[in-house]
Amino acid sequence: MVKKFPKSAKAWIEYLKQIILQQRGAKESKTADSSLKEEEFEAERKKVLTKAMQVLPQKKHLKVLSHYARLEYSFGELEKARTSFDSIVSNFPKRYILYFFNFDGEICAF
Question: What is the mean pLDDT of the chain?
Answer without folding.
Answer: 80
